[in-house]
Amino acid sequence: MVRRTAMVVAACAALGMTVPVGAATAQSAAIPEVGQRWADAGPYTPEVSIGLVHTMYHPRELGADGEKHPVVLWGNGTGVLPGAYTSLLRHYASHGFIVVAANTPTSNFAITMRSGIDLIADKAADPGSVFFGKVDLDRIGAAGHSQGGSGAINAAIDDRVDTVVAIQPGPLNDVDLIDEPVLYLAGQFDLVVWPAVVRAMYRDADHVPAEYLELRGAGHFGTGVTGGAMRGPSTAWLRYWLMDDANARAEFFGENCGYCSDTRQFSGFDRNALARQIPG
Fold it and tell me: For a pLDDT cut of 70, what percent of the chain falls above it?
C-alpha cells in the first residue's frame, strides 16, 4: 500500500539511510504533471454521473494513454449532497482522480463513503463499464469538508484507504484508529469549526505523518463548498500520496518546502516529526 511504503521511507530517513527520490511508490503511468498549478484545472475534462447512493466525478478521457486513475472518496458537510461541492469535485476529476462522492448529508461515520470502494471496484472489474481496467485500486484517498472531513478520517479505518484530507473537520472521529498520513486544513476565521479544534486533531495524529495548514482569511463555507483557497493544497496532497507527484511532494516535505514559509497564503503551518522525516 502507498502509505506503508511511505512509512518505510520516513523510517529510513530517520536512520540516516539514503532513499531515492520517488521511492515511495511506483509512478502511476501517464498521469500528466501540472507543474505547481494545483488550483488550476487539470488536463482532463471532468464528467459527472449521479447515482442513487454515490455521485461519480471522473475524467471523461479515462485511461486515454493507458493510465490508471486513483480514487478519492468524498464526504459532504452536514445537510448537503455532493452537488454543493461540484466545483471542487470537478476540479479533482480534472487532475485525473475518480471521485466517489457519498450521496448523504450525514457522512460522519463514513458508512456510505467506505461502500464507495466496493462500488468502484465492481465497476473496474466489469467489462461493460467505462471504468473497466482504468482504476488504480491500490491508490485510494479519503477527503471531505466539515462533517465530511470527520468522515474522511473515519473512512481511513478501512485498510484500503491510503491518505486523508480533512477540510475543517468536525470532532466525531478518532485519528488513533488509523495509520494513514493526514492533511488537516483549517480556516483562520472559521466560526463553525474553530482552528483550535482542527489543530488539536492534528496534534493527536503524532503516530502518522500529519500536517496542519490554516488558510489566511478563510471562513467555513466558501473554502469548503467551492474549494476556494483550499483547492490547491488539497489537490497537491492528493497528487503526492496517490500519484507520486514530485512537485507536490516539495510543497509539503523537505527543509525548504513550498508551504513552510508561505505566510501570504497561510496564517498557520505545522508538520509533525514523522512528516519532517519524509524527504523533500
Answer: 90
Cell of 180: 494513514
Backbone angles phi, psi at 74, to 5 degrees: -120, 135
DSSP string, 219-231: -SHHHHHS-GGGH
Whether the Cβ atoms of residue 110 and residue 74 lie closer than 8 Å to each other: no
Q: How many domains does the chain have?
A: 1
Q: What phi and psi, each to the nearest 5 degrees, are found at residue 40?
A: -85, 155
Q: How far apart are CA 208 and CA 175, in angstroms?
A: 9
Collapsing DSSP to helix, strand or coil, 116 comes out as helix
Specify if 89 maps to a domain: yes
Sign of CA dihedral 269, 272, 278, 279: positive
Q: Is residue 23 assigned to a domain?
A: no
Average pLDDT, stretch 133-160?
A: 98
Distance CA 119, CA 93 (A): 17
| Domain of 82, in residue numbers | 2-16+42-276
Per-residue pLDDT band for 28 (boundaries 50, 70, 90) equals very low
Q: Over the stretch 224-248, which tens digit does the pLDDT of each residue have?
A: 888 889 999 999 999 999 999 999 9
Rounded (5°) CA angle 202-205-208: 125
Kindly provide the b/e burial profile for residues 59-81, where b requires at least 16 CB atoms within 10 angstroms of the residue's own CB: beebbeeebbbbbbbbbbbeebb
Give the contacts of 30 (CB within 8 A, at least 6 positions apart): 65, 66, 67
pLDDT digits (tens, 9 = 90+) for 86-114: 999 999 999 999 999 999 999 999 999 99
pTM value surpassing 0.85: yes
DSSP type of residue 220: S
Residue 133 lies in a domain: yes
